[in-house]
Fold these 2 entries.
Entry 1:
Amino acid sequence: MSDFVRLRIWDDPAIRGALSWYLDVAENRRPAKFRIAATVATQLDPAASTEDALWVELDRLMPVFVARWQAIRAGASLPLAADGPSLLELCRELAYRMLAHCNFCPWDCRVDRISGAKIGACKLASGSRVSSHFHHTGEELFYRGTQGSGTIFFTSCNMRCAFCQNGDISTDKDNGEETDPRTLAAMAWTLRREGCHNINWVGGEVVIHLHAIVDAIALLGRDFTPTRVELKRARKTKADRFFWFDEMPDAATYDGKFNAPMLWNSNFFITLESMKILRVLTDVWLPDFKFGPGRCAMTLAKTPWYWETVTRNIALIADWGEDFSIRHLVMPNHVTCCTYPVLEWIAERVPSVPLNVMAQFRPDNFCDPASPKYRSKHAEIARRPTRMELDDSWRRARELGLHFEATTFERHNPFGTAAMHTTGEGLALL
Ligand code: SF4
């Protein structure tokens, strides 16, 4: 048994139940979904087919894929990968077709990002830039584990959160290094062989890089081994390259081939089409559920259709039987309009999900009074949440019976997962 499995967070039945597939893949007891997708053959030639035909084929193959995933989950062995094109290549081709009239996210810009003649709300053409990649030791314990979460951090975003704590990365499309799918695959390959428990695709926002990520995962599903040149190129953005990590190739394989759970760490402002592709490739999802159903997503993030999009997507992954946890960041002056409705929706729709009700909001970007970027219209969020706002948020989560304490307070509870009370003890520790 690995040190990761021995973490007492896994003794919590709700967490273990919600993240059992992810844990099995992280421990290489099961193949990742991208490995299963490679076994589902398609008779179509993806490159020679119309986009409409590709979507019809995806819909036809999805039940086959899901049935195979469920069988493997129950203990069946992994069939051999298809000799010809598979669901993996179908997803890759669809992502590139979408890129030519981009509808990765609900902005639905319909610009041709391959030609790059026009750009959409994310300001990107076809290139993808990575700001850094590294063993992340700041994620939830079930993601960071003992060796870190293998994080690949992309630039740019499709939302405009005034308080973004990664504003230099999310608002600067030229931050980081231009990368390509083989270099991305080399980053994932290295992080996993260095012991990371998952590959954590994050930004900015990741869905705006869907084509590059799907392409990289498709490579990993087809016996990818990076060249020395690709490893060197990937290393340029490795933030922890001056630390030594022992390579553990055996900890990165299932049935002798590369294996790693794919973690989709996202604002969930994603179209249905992108969600369908991601369903094939994502082993565990991490939606960041920020705003309530009122106008806050517009006033704070210039994002229309937020509530309906994010709730639809979370409901989808629940209905699909996926592994996921949710994050919610408590914002000053937004407990009643955002935190309460978010918690209430979760209680009604996905009550057993592991939830992180986060306290770490600090004024940054356009709401930091000390910054030249500060805008006085954001004065209402130009401070940290008060103790009372945090206490009210956690109290409401507890009243609703949500499963948040083990996840939210684990850093203050290193010896186990026993619930910690937020009134008094929990707050005192924070
Ligand atoms: S990813 Fe979203 S914001 Fe960017 S071009 Fe596509 S639809 Fe527009």
Entry 2:
Amino acid sequence: MTGAESLIRTLIASGVQVCFANPGTTEVQFVVALDRVEGMRCVLGMAETVVTGCADGYARMAEKPAMTLLHCGPGFANGIANLHNARRAHSPMVNIVGDQATYHRPFDPPLTADTEGLARSVSHWVRTSGFAQEVAIDGAEAVQAARTPPGQIATLVVPADVAWGEGSGPAVSLTVAPQAQVAPEVLRTVARILCSGEPAMLFLNGQALREAGLVAAHRISHATGAKLLGPTHVPRMARGRGRVPVDRMPFVVDMALQVFAGLKHVILVGAKPPVGFFAYPGKPSLMAPEGCAIHSLVRPEQDAVAALQWLADEIGAPRIVPIKEEGPKPRIASGPFDSEAFGMTLAAILPENAIVCDDAVTSGRAVFPATFNAPPHDWIQSTGGAIGHGFPCATGAAVACSDRKVVCLQADGAGMYTLQALWTQAREKLDVLDVVFANRVYKILYGELRATGATPGCASDNFFDLSRPDLDWVGLARGMGVEAVRVETLETFADTFRAACGRRGPFLIEFRI
Ligand SMILES: Cc1ncc(C[n+]2csc(CCOP(=O)(O)OP(=O)(O)O)c2C)c(N)n1
């Protein structure tokens, strides 16, 4: 058995079930092995950042690592933007990167690059396999690293001769240490702060944004008056009717500062201190006001849900606290696109238990608060600010959850980075409803430019205006095997969306703005 087959069998034995790939010559041994072995679904992405974005979406929804198979340094480099998003979401992921044979590499053939160096920039764990007899063990360790809380990126570089050499056969899967618990003294300190009566906020991320975490946070908020807030971009959040309506930190610094104004304590629950997306002249980096103390209840790798539940019990919060409705009532609006009206409309027609992937940039800003009362759903976003996450993330989420409708809210500029994912949706017959917000501009960047006091000129128009020619999303989607329709009003959107929900398989709605 080759090293490649030993590795593939090890990954399957360790619970890895899907391989998202864009292979080349140095990965052929893996493809041969995958042909011989059962138990791994093989999904092609026609660009590496589609492959890595798919694996991220899959990992977030399946809560286990996917394998990616990538080609040498340049192939890996193409996948980095969505690996960056995955790293910041703590998505467990195992990347297998084929590379030049060990004895061939010193001759510096064309695809030779610093693969390990590239891998290190976005991976928590990196190794280059040196021997065919050891590559299976390396694979078991890669899965173990990926599964280590809160979820890590593990990248294993496999030279071609290690892949084709005589392997050891599969290695046994390795266990992962359980999640660390919060120390009792930390818990008591935070309880004291929250009961002091001084204005406080729980800043939630990671597992704290899942249903059990939010329910416990809600108990604490009810008992102490502490505010609840999530990050600007959530990795995965349980939302909708009957769930705790927690808003996100606004992207715009002045709005974020207002949300934090007057606070004396910010308690981090699996979150980093609240920082602005970018620095702006004369504005602070941290959103908490001066004089506000920042405390950590749990670090991202610790058990946030258990900590919140203990904290709620420690302060004597009632076990069951009714959830008050917040935000507008779902209703189908009419007329041209407006972010809030779109959100209310979506809330009225979203299928139960949907997964919403949000890469909608400015078109999505008001959609989040306007969907608090939608049917229960999960919301996932690019957590690293690298746009072009929506289509692939939705694709991977649909592979993970074939029984749930995936709705992808995709800004047009961002969508152009990874539109090849539509082809994967068609190839795999995935149940994804893509909504493209076709405003034909990088609207956010016009906003950022105007915020400096400048007025757009010829260069800004060349860089930020996406017309001349206009993108034809219906044509682009159809060209990749995805049925598509263009709409221009909210009422036609609602009709089209409803009809699309009645069928399975990918469908794209271009909302012309
Ligand atoms: C990988 C990556 N490249 C570039 C950017 C910079 N950037 C941020 S937003 C944006 C344009 C977004 O335009 P669009 O997706 O059309 O959304 P809109 O602003 O129109 O709502 C760009 C280019 C980025 N964040 N990530």
